[in-house]
C-alpha cells in the first residue's frame, strides 16, 4: 500500500479506494460466507463492508494493513448480522414423497453452496503461522456446516485464529475482546469442531483422475436409478442433507431408505450437469417436462468425497442455480 494511494482515497478518489480494497474483495466474501453460511448474505455483507470502509477511511491510521482493517470491519458486520438475526428467509420446496424417519433434524437451515468459480479469484495469500486448517478443508461444506453450529463469537475467533492464522493478540484486537476471552472462546470452538470433524480418509486431489472417476461413477449411478449401486459408493457413515429442510440421514442404511422413498422423483432426473462447489464435485439436476419436453432445473447436488467413496450428499434448492451458471431450462 502506497501512502499516495491512501491519501488519494482519503481525499475522495474512488478509483484509489478501489485499488486499495479490490485485491481483498474475493477473500473477504469467502470470510463472510464462512461466518454466515449463505452466499447471498455474504454478498450483502461484503457490500456493507465496502461502504463502511469508504465512509470510515479517514479513521484508518495505518497501524495495521488495509487487509487486516477490512477483516475487522467484515467480521464485526457479520457478527452484527448473526446477533440481530437479520437473515434472509429461505423457502423450502416440499419433498416429492413423504420422507422416511430421519437420523436427526439438522440445525443449519441457512447453508448454501459456494461456487468454485469465485474461489478461482482468490489471491495466493498464505494463512498466518497459527492456522490449523488448509484452504481446501476450510471451504468444504463439512467445515462450513460445522462452523454454523458455533455461537457468533466462537465462530469469529475460530476463523480468525485457525483459518486465517491471526495470533491471539491480533484476534483480540480485531474483535475488541481480551486475550483471555479469545483463548476461552477458541477452546470451546475447537472442541465443537473436533467433534464434528470426520475421521474419513482425505478426498482425492481436486480435479484429478481419481476424483473425476469417482464423480462419474456417482453421476451414472444416480441417473441410472440403481439405489444399490449408489449406496455401494458411499462410506458407512455417509451424510445425506437437503437444507433448508431439516431432515438428515446418516449411514448407508438410512441413505438406502431415503433414496428408495424418493425413487419416483429421482427417476425423473435425466441429466446431471457437472459444476463445482466448495472445492467439491457438484451437479445441476434436470428433469424432463412431460408436456414441453424441455429439461427443467430442479436443484444442485454436491458430493463430499473421502478416499474412493462418497461421504456426504447435499441437495440445494433451485435458487442457487444462477450462481453456478445453471439455466432454469435446457433444450
Automatic annotation (TrEMBL):
SUPFAM superfamilies: NTF2-like, Sigma2 domain of RNA polymerase sigma factors, Sigma3 and sigma4 domains of RNA polymerase sigma factors. CDD domains: Sigma70_r4 (cd06171). Keywords: Sigma factor, Transcription, Transcription regulation. Residues 142-193 form the RNA polymerase sigma factor 70 region 4 type domain. Interacts transiently with the RNA polymerase catalytic core formed by RpoA, RpoB, RpoC and RpoZ (2 alpha, 1 beta, 1 beta' and 1 omega subunit) to form the RNA polymerase holoenzyme that can initiate transcription. Residues 20-87 form the RNA polymerase sigma-70 region domain. This is RNA polymerase sigma factor. Belongs to the sigma-70 factor family. ECF subfamily. Pfam families: Sigma70_r2, Sigma70_r4_2, SnoaL_2. Residues 215-286 form the SnoaL-like domain.
